[in-house]
Amino acid sequence: MRSDTTCSLLKSRFVKEMTTCVSALVLCMASAQSAADDTEIFFSTGHQPNVLFILDVSGSMDDVDNNDGVTRLAKLKSALGTLLSTNDGFNAGLMTFSSTTSGTGIRLRKEIKPVADTKDDLLASINSLTAGGGTPTQAALFEGMLYYQGGNAWAAPPQN
Known about the structure:
The chain is α+β, with helices and mostly antiparallel strands.
């Protein structure tokens, strides 16, 4: 009788271990399949990517780094100017964030549209930015997510 109990326990343990192994294998295979599907997003040639530039225009963007006399905001404007001037194979929009005494200043300045069609307008908006206020990064990123999801973002609508 003792051997029957031992045999039963061994069978039970074997079944549990095999179930765990098979479950782990299935999960690994499923995650590999999911990862493989994600590559279509990055290597697809059928659609232009949508990029929402969410820019910090808080007071710290007026700071100068490295004693070069150039503010962080000026460097950001220059980098985006170069990017937009040399590339137009994507869609882009512009959102800015800072906070003031009157509340959070998260603004959707330009909706996502083809850069080839809106490059000058987008560059003009970027070059008109000024720095001031605090840094509500988390709220701005949340607003960006809502915009991409098509939800009701709290950000002020684009200004013409």
